[in-house]
Specification:
Largest interface: A-B, 26 and 26 residues
Helix content of chain A: 10-25%
Radius of gyration of chain A: 16 Å
Distance between the termini of chain A: 25 Å
Oligomer: homodimer
């Protein structure tokens, strides 16, 4: 299984950018397409607008009961009818990382209901979290979502609920890129 | 602040190897010396026996009360009288990483008393944890300890207590390298 992926903004690619905006902090350079590929794959020679990396890892906050529900409900990426995607790289503040595990967990779930909110949109919205902070990347996380077009409204609701949570007070950089399959 | 470090086993270096053994799983190649340096430092041209990398990160299990006690009690690395060191790279099993956060925390602290055991040897034994799993390294962690020679017996006791804990049932590779300052 590949664990580490590169996210590449360029003039061509698998996903066509519908729109992109900086929600908080600095934007990414403009790109018309985005591709996601294992970092140990063949290097492409094309000029790119930006390149981010992230890796899949274990979940940091989910309890056993949450994990069991998540695993039994969520769908994988790459479903044929999921032609819409969102890539939302996020950086959290130094204040967040200074918190202890129990404080982060309390904000993440007991206060902000992060997992519970995501669960409400399963299985329609597939998600994958990529960790980037410990790779020295400009974002701490790259969040990736896939869904069929009829669920686009639900996805906007999901994003709005998370952004209005207490947890998001600790987000100090966020870029939102909406994509659709190019082919 | 540097976050990512390389641990280099070679024929010369900052620390002289007193002894090295595989506690569980495969050993590392023999080396007479070990050096620790930031990965963004100047590259050395010398042949090396092995090279591991790890990065400092936030603590994954400590609660606020534990963190407060740790920060007020522990001493940094590099104390002049701390001429003894131990480097113990550790890998945990797939079963560990499949656990949920609350299960890992319960084994780590409520069952195995990992933080509480470490606290009992502060400030004599300085520690630094480097994370390596998400860098695709052969170990998940590189643990590093420094102490003055009169505390060597206490250090052996600390290691023995951790190794006999339930948490250690999930350790599937461990190498133990004891060092003293070369100069």
């Amino acid at each position: 299984m590949h664990k580490r992926y590169a996210f590449i903004g360029a003039g061509e690619g698998t996903w066509r950018v519908q729109w992109s905006r900086a929600v908080r902090g600095e934007a990414l350079a403009p790109a018309t397409h985005v591709s996601v590929m294992p970092v140990d794959g063949p290097p492409g020679g094309e000029p790119v607008s930006w390149r981010l990396e992230g890796h899949m890892s274990n979940l940091r906050y989910a309890t056993r009961s949450e994990l069991t529900v998540l695993r039994s409900t969520q769908e994988p990426l790459g479903r044929p009818d999921a032609r819409c995607a969102a890539m939302i790289p996020i950086r959290k503040s130094a204040a967040w990382w200074e918190l202890a595990q129990d404080e982060r967990r309390a904000i993440f779930e007991e206060t902000s209901h992060h997992t519970a909110i995501g669960l409400a949109y399963l299985p329609a919205i597939s998600r994958q979290l990529y960790h980037a902070r410990d790779l020295g990347q400009p974002f701490d996380f790259i969040t990736w979502f896939e869904y069929a077009r009829p669920h686009a409204g639900e996805f906007e609701e999901l994003v709005a609920r998370l952004r209005s949570s207490r947890e998001w007070d600790f987000v100090d950089r966020e870029v939102d890129i909406r994509l659709e399959l190019a082919a």
